[in-house]
Amino acid sequence: MSWFSIKKRLSLPTENKTETVTIAEAIEDCLNSSDFEHRMIVTTYKNVWVSYYTTLIDSNKLHDDVIEKIQGHQFHSPEDLRTFIPLSESVLTSDGKIVADSLMRGYVCIHLEEESNLCLLIAIQTDDNREITIPEVEFSVIGPKESFVEGIDTNINLIRKRIPIPDLKVKEYTVGSLSRTRVCVIYIDSIANEENVNTMIQRVSAIQFDQINDSSYITQMIEDQTNSPFPQFIDTERPDRVAALLAEGKVVVAVDGSPQVITGPTTLVEFFSAFEDYFLSWHIATAFRLIRLFAVWFSIFATPLYVAVLTYHAEIIPQDLLATLIVSRSQIPFPPILEALFLELTIELLREAGARLPTKVGQTIGIVGGIVIGTAAVEAGLTSNVLLIIVALAALASFTTPVYRMGNTIRLIRFPYIFASQLWGLVGLAILFNFMLVHLLTITSLGRPYLAPLYPTRLSDFKDAFFRMPFNLQSKRPIHLQTKNNVRFEKQKAKKKKDIDEGI
């Protein structure tokens, strides 16, 4: 029997054919693709048409669980086929749009030759996801060694293993007119603020774009202030961190094809807190957080302060240090701004070269290139050895930022401060800092203040902001999240219990 006669049988009678897609039309649109298979299986009972994309389905499942079952059982309708095919994910439909979408997601379409107005869709997609490995960006010496992969179902499984409660809700949406990417909004219904959840769902479902390749696309489209260089969501590859943030009352967005998960709302302080802090004692974790905050300030202001002091405020330099600076700059023909820009741009070039090259080659280029270029620049009289040390320390300090996106922001904002220090000295630094502070005050994340708990001031939230206090003192969730249930545990029950022999 020709395909045209089959198409005629599959066509559904409708009043308006322009709005309805028949099963025949859905299959016909796929026939021009070389990896699409549309063939008839002849059985002793009825002839069956099977349609699928060979590159999207598991051929072993197709042969063992579908074709062999069709050839070995008696059936009279698609409902009969559904009863003896041992695959749970199946759908009976007569909608051509559903058929077309399902075929592109690894389903096989089965319909009988006589019964053309109904077909059976069975999911036998191939599982070619990357295996779960250790985190590469957020690596920690202590703690779990699992990271997200590109498969969204696997990622949701990793989250559910850590929060096995019915209150963990997953809302799935399809984003992208071409990519048809699966995007899931995840939250704990009894904890998360309903306004935060609805805002996230509204922004995700309202995205109008043709192709979504990674969660970074989503991040840029749902941020409150898209023109700000400061990230307003934290993306993480650690399932344990996502589970902890969900327990705090935050909302999570997972994107199919991306090993990074978006979490929000977030605050500026959270970008300088590593999740490994919770695996260490609170004394050590607090010390490390303070070191990171100092490193960030040093990375931003070290080079601008050098330029400002040497250009306008040489009188504030101690005499012992002034002699060293004079000797180091005696052979330099350029003003401080030019030698600072030269070294800063050199550092950025080495970073980009190391990031774009293979791992072993990139490490070699970064180390050898930095040593050779730095030494040659000082010997050639292009820059002073004092500034070389300052720029190298500032670059090293910028690497202490746990979140990669915030590290890029710190790399960027150093340059406006350098130019401001050249124009107005320390006054320029103060003016630009005030502008940045005003900008940070206007930023929100899902409508929540970005500078919390500094502004608005929430003293109770300081227990897990700049400091990481003991767990028994963190009995309540962050106030700025305005969760439904603000209590984590009853503080009285968390007190230290006596040993067995002490109770006698």
From TrEMBL:
Main location as per UniProt: membrane
InterPro entries documented for this protein: Spore_Ger, UPF0353/GerABKA_families
Regions that span the bilayer: 290-312, 362-380, 386-405, 417-441
Keyword NAD: no
Any Pfam family the entry gives: GerA
Membrane topology of the entry: Multi-pass membrane protein
Localisation: Cell membrane; Membrane
Gene Ontology biological process terms in this record: spore germination
Domain of life per record: Bacteria
A GO cellular component entry from the record: plasma membrane
Entry keywords, A to Z: Membrane, Transmembrane, Transmembrane helix
Similarity remark: Belongs to the GerABKA family.
Name this protein carries in UniProt: Spore germination protein
Organism: Alkalihalophilus pseudofirmus (Bacillus pseudofirmus)
